[in-house]
Design a protein that fits this description.
With 843 residues, the protein is mainly alpha-helical. 73% of the residues lie in helices and 0% in strands. It has a two-stranded antiparallel ribbon. The protein is flat, with a radius of gyration of 65 Å. It comes from Hevea brasiliensis. Pfam families: Sec10_HB, Sec10_N.
Length: 843
């Protein structure tokens, strides 16, 4: 805001100025300082009018009194101080009509004039300042240009200085390199002189090492002597190589020329002698466990053929490689006292213990090797290789004796399976040992590859041994089952003879347990395939071969089982044929034949049930193999293109023979069932069943005895079929049986004559048969029995109604003609001539 003190100061400062007074003879009121800082128009206006307007002055005075009175004087808001004597003068000139207006107008005009003057002053100052700024700016730009030019000159000077410094540095470096090279050459020349002197000493007389410098005999300077000897030997051999002279010829004839041949020979002798001396010292320190001395000797020996002799010597002198008792202890630990009675589980425990001991021994040796040898990894590589090639190989040779595929070991001694289990245990445990040794440290040695090579001879023929083992196990199992079957047959032979029948159910039946055992053998073999085969292609090939063995075994086993069950059906059929009698036989013979026929029927029913059990177990066995293939085999074959599809095709092929046997056997089962149905119908069906006498008694609406017996027999015997068969097999079997039953009944009824009451009895039989076959769930069979019920109406209706009976079912007209001929009144009612015209017109 505008400051009154500033205005007061401006008045004071303007009192000494030479400005002309205003028209109202007032002193200079405005100054440039009044517009500096925070300018307020209200403050400026108050400073101008507070002397002329009493009200404004009073307001200002009241405001000033609120802040205190200074020296009893009136202080205006703009900072001017008015004397008390001036107040009456203004008061006297006041008029009621605002007489101060003239003074205010004069004041405002003077103020405007002063503002204009101030503007002109400011404009003049601004113009002068612009000129000064322009001049200073030009001067400044000129100075900057000169400075830039000077800086560029400085940069050029610095660049020249830097280039000079770099040049001087390079020169100094070259001089330093020359000096260093010269010093190195001087040192090399000095060493060369020394080496030549020593070389001349060695090139004296052949075999004379007595005249050598003390350096070569001082035990405290062995390291230096060894270094110099190796340098001399390398130089001499290189010189001889340039001359085309071989070292062995020099050894044989040291005086052949006047070159360095003698020096080479003497140096060779000296190095050998020095190396042997160091090895002896190394051995002595090793026995005393003086690691520092051993390390010193090993460091010196590293100059001889990179220390190979020292490393091999150290490894070869380890107790586990030279103590025979260690080898015997290994054998006893793994195989026990009696090698022939060793079991895979005991061998596994023994190998675990032995390999742990070997790992601990190698770990202890590793600590010594790390402290002694300058190249511990090379020593560890030699040590681990020696462990695997000597100690482990010696044990594996005793443990794994590869059997011949021509003369297999007997099953009483474990057979091929024992060898394969031993091989798997040894391989797995040795692989674990290799991993443990890798963790301990074995340098650059390919310990896994070396371990694989230990079993290469066994793995080469592994697939053949695995397949031979599976065949041996299968044959042993078949022999066992055959022996059991023989015992059952012998125990049942007496009972069979007492019944006068040769067919019994004591034949060897298919065993799902046996098939499960086949799968278990195969699963164990597959696990060994996975263990021995690291490559997916190799694994797939071995798995496919092993699985093919299972397919062959299961296919052969269930096919033979089905064939044996078929043999029972065939024997039952032959037994039935033996008791088929003619028409003119005595009652005694007929009774004996009937009894024998019943025994044959019982044998047929037993063989039927036995075959259905065989079919059921065959289906269960195939399901087990398919489930095993899906869960365990297929994923191992997928990495190889075509392997999975080929195995599926082989599985179908292997089961095709069993399917053929099952199909033939099911047909024989139908024949067996139909033979018994025909026997029951022939034995139980009476002529009076369908020609009831017209004696006024109500007709019998029960099924005939023959029908009841047949349905009871079918219900009893087909229970096994309902249980054994499933899906499409069951549907096809029951459909075929239903069709054969329909046809058999038609042929059977052709032997009888029917009256109306007999027709009702026949219709009741057909209904009974139809209700039974409805359990077959075969629509085509149900339809045929429904048509039979329709045809049975030909025996019930009056002759004149026959023409309209088959209007809705023309398909059965042919069979209906045959049925009509069986009517009791066929001839008396002259139905043949009556219907002939009807059939002709309809056709």
């Amino acid at each position: 805001m505008y400051n009154g003190n500033q205005m007061n100061e401006s008045i004071k400062s303007d009192s000494g100025n030479s400005k002309s007074p205003s028209v109202g003879s007032l002193p200079l009121i405005l100054d440039t300082d009044d517009f500096k800082g925070e300018f307020s128009f209200d403050g400026l206006f108050g400073n101008l009018v507070n002397e002329l307007l009493p009200s404004f002055q009073e307001e200002e005075a009241d405001s000033a009194e609120g802040h205190g009175n200074v020296g009893g004087s009136d202080v205006l808001a703009n900072g001017h101080v008015r004397a008390p004597s001036e107040v009456p003068k203004f008061a006297q000139g006041l008029s009621p009509l605002f007489p101060e207006v003239d003074a205010l107008l004069s004041l405002f005009r003077d103020s405007c004039k002063e503002l204009i003057d101030l503007r002109k002053q400011i404009d003049g100052k601004l113009s002068n300042l612009r000129k000064d700024v322009s001049a200073q700016d030009s001067k400044h730009r000129k100075t900057l240009a000169e400075l830039e030019k000077g800086v560029d000159g400085l940069f050029d000077s610095f660049a020249r200085l830097d280039s000079r410094i770099s040049s001087v540095g390079q020169t100094a470096a070259k001089i330093g390199d020359h000096l260093q090279s010269a010093d190195a050459q001087r040192e090399t020349a000095s060493q060369t002189i020394e080496l030549i002197k020593y070389l001349m000493e060695f090139n004296g007389s052949p075999g004379d090492l007595m005249e050598l410098s003390p350096l070569f005999s001082d035990d405290s300077r062995v390291s230096e002597a060894a270094s110099i000897a190796q340098k001399l030997r390398s130089f001499a051999e290189e010189d001889m190589g340039r001359q085309g002279i071989s070292v062995p010829s020099v050894m044989g004839n040291a005086t052949a020329s006047r070159g360095l041949e003698v020096a080479v020979a003497n140096l060779q002798d000296y190095c050998n002698e020095l190396e042997n001396r160091l090895l002896a010292r190394f051995d002595a320190a090793s026995q005393r466990r003086e690691l520092s001395t051993m390390a010193e000797c090993a460091k010196i020996l590293s100059q001889f053929n990179r220390g190979t002799s020292a490393m091999q010597h150290y490894v070869a002198t380890r107790p586990m490689f030279i103590d025979v008792e260690v080898m015997n202890a290994d054998t006893r630990l793994v195989l026990g006292d009696q090698v022939s009675q060793a079991s895979p589980s005991n061998v596994a425990r023994g190998l675990s213990s032995l390999y742990k001991e070997i790992t601990d021994t190698v770990r202890k040796e590793a600590a010594t090797i790390m402290a002694v040898f300058p190249s511990p990894n090379d020593v560890m590589s030699i040590l681990v290789q020696r462990v695997l090639e000597q100690r482990v190989t010696a044990l594996l040779d005793k443990l794994l004796v590869k059997p011949s595929l021509v003369n297999l070991p007997p099953m009483e001694e474990g057979g091929l399976l024992l060898y394969l289990r031993m091989l798997a245990v040894a391989y797995e445990k040795t692989q674990e040992l290799a991993r443990d040794l890798r963790a301990v440290g074995c340098g650059d040695l390919d310990v896994e590859g070396l371990t694989e090579s230990l079993f290469s001879s066994h793995k080469d023929e592994y697939p053949e041994h695995e397949q031979a083992s599976l065949r041996q196990l299968y044959q042993a199992k078949m022999d066992e089952l055959h022996a059991e079957s023989q015992q059952l047959s012998e125990s049942a032979a007496t009972i069979g003879r007492s019944k006068g029948a040769s067919v019994t159910s004591s034949h060897q039946q298919i065993s799902v347990t046996a098939v499960t055992e086949f799968v278990r053998w195969n699963e164990e073999a597959i696990s060994r395939c996975s263990l021995f085969s690291s490559q997916p292609t190799t694994l797939a090939a071995n798995v496919k071969a092993v699985f093919t063995c299972l397919l062959d075994q299961v296919g052969q086993y269930i096919t033979e089982g089905l064939e044996r069950a078929r043999d029972s059906l065939t024997e039952a059929a032959a037994l039935r044929e033996r008791f088929v009698l003619g028409t003119s036989v005595s009652r005694r013979v007929a009774a004996a034949a009937a009894s024998a026929a019943e025994a044959a029927a019982a044998a047929g029913e037993s063989s039927f049930r036995s075959f259905m059990v065989a079919v059921q177990r065959c289906g269960s066995s195939v399901a087990i193999v398919q489930q095993y293939f899906a869960n365990s085999i297929s994923r191992l074959l997928l990495p190889v293109d075509g392997a999975h599809a080929a195995s599926c095709e082989e599985m179908a092929t292997a089961m095709s023979s069993a399917e053929a046997a099952a199909y033939k056997g099911l047909l024989q089962c139908i024949e067996t069932v139909m033979a018994e149905v025909e026997r029951l119908l022939s034995a139980e069906q009476k002529a009076t069943d369908y020609r009831s006498p017209d004696d006024g008694i109500a007709p019998d609406h029960r099924p005939t005895n023959a029908c009841t017996r047949v349905v009871a027999y079918l219900s009893r015997v087909l229970e096994a079929a309902f249980t054994a068969l499933e899906g499409l097999n069951k549907q096809a079997f029951l459909t075929e049986l239903g069709n054969r039953l329909n046809k058999g009944l038609l042929n059977h009824w052709q032997k009888f004559t029917f009256n109306p009451s007999g027709g009702l009895r026949l219709k009741r039989d057909i209904t009974e048969y139809g209700e039974f076959v409805r359990s077959f769930n075969a629509p085509s069979v149900d339809e045929k029995f429904e048509l039979l019920g329709i045809m049975a109406n030909v025996f019930i209706v009056a002759p004149e109604s026959l023409s309209t009976l088959f209007e809705g079912t023309p398909s059965i007209r042919k069979d209906a003609q045959r049925f009509i001929q069986l009517r009791e009144d066929f001839k008396s009612a002259k139905l043949a001539s009556r219907l002939s015209s009807l059939w002709t017109s309809s056709s």
